[in-house]
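Quick illustration, no need to memorize.
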Amino acid sequence: METQEQLKSLYEKELKPQLADMEKMRKFVKKWRALAIASLILAILFCFSDYTLLQIIGGIGFFVGAIYAGVKALGTYNKYHKQFKSEVVRKVIHLINPAYKYNSAKHIEVYDYNKAAIFKRKAERCLGDDLVFGKIDKTPFKFSEVKTQYKTTSTNDNGKTVTQWHDIFRGLFFFAEFNKNIDGQTFVFPEKDRKMVNLFGKEKDESKHHGELVKLENPEFEKTFSVYGTSQQEARYILTPVMMEAIVNIHKRYGYKMYFSFKGENVFCAIPFNRNLFEPNIKRSGINFADVEEMYMLFSLIETIIHEMNLNTRIWTKD
């Protein structure tokens, strides 16, 4: 993995000048978006005033102005967004490893998300972007930002069917090939996450969906995480002392809430975030090393997990 000094060098020599060139677009979008919002507010205010001919004409004029300003802002934002992804995000990823593949428009598929079985409710659709995939030494992986949802339908007072989408998970989702054969399922969840207890709908030591609580002999690990699985023996086979130490180290280094699933031939990891990642910020200047640094750290998490978990060490039936 490249060093912090190399990231700083990339920023100063390439990213900072490019971000400076893109500032005109950002300011243009910010200005026209503000005009669109102001025009729309004025149009609404005119609608609630007396319906004189002058006010009707004024309201229509402001409404048309809001549409015009919105179209101007959106068109430039799309160009700005595309340039940010190709000239900033892509370069940060390739600094970590030039062999990684990146597609700003794609994401982890709903099938792969559901295969992890981390959350009780299955997703019916998966939204997202910024798919990164490739190999770290011998280990294939995929990683992207996702938002997963399930659907409910109901009938309203007019007899019409109403469809609503509800969020299940929003954040980063990652999976890689695991270096052991797994017959059952093993889950590692944050110890103090009350939401998971509510999600189970059971006491903490039992979950129909995730199996039984597994007790392990690592006090530091058990202070931070709870383990559930379909087999006590297999859970211990997967969560060796080295593996538990690796998961604790990852948590200490990044401080994120993490959910792990070991199932089939893969290890899955879900990291919740309540905001969009790897996106340009319209409200303030994009010439900001801290934003690039955070982006680098999040993408580097892929390699950290694989290296800390020693997934490149193939044993027995794994090549």
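Confidence is low (pLDDT under 50) at residues 197-203.
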